[in-house]
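S.,

Sequence below, as promised.
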Amino acid sequence: MKDLGEAKVNYLVELWKDLKYDERQIGVDILTPDMSPEYFHYFVGVEVIQNDEAKEMRIMPKGKYMVCRYEAENFEQLVNDALYKASQYLYDVWLPHHHLQPDALLIQKYFHPFSKNCYIELWAKLKEEGVA
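The prediction came back faster than expected:
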């Protein structure tokens, strides 16, 4: 997830507009590294308590997470500007300053994405102590 904090071609707004979900649900995306360091896998969905339908389901792995919450004026600014600044600060400044190593998993939770009070939480999974 090298250069995570740098702006890239961004299709997040279109993906979220295409996703059919209830505004009361929490939108979730999951980033995991690809074999090639300049790419990552991206999964988008909604948080559910129980999966009643035949949908693909992902479960957050147990562990310690560093959670960073941020907001912006609207969803486009949230994912096109604030997302990169927050990611860059978290990975390049805050985690190293606190001597914490991130695992290769980043979960982003979107709250009320298309309303004025939208915000995102970055959930960076931390490596277990003693695991390189």
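Strands lie at 27-33, 40-46, 65-71, 102-111, 119-126.

Coffee later?
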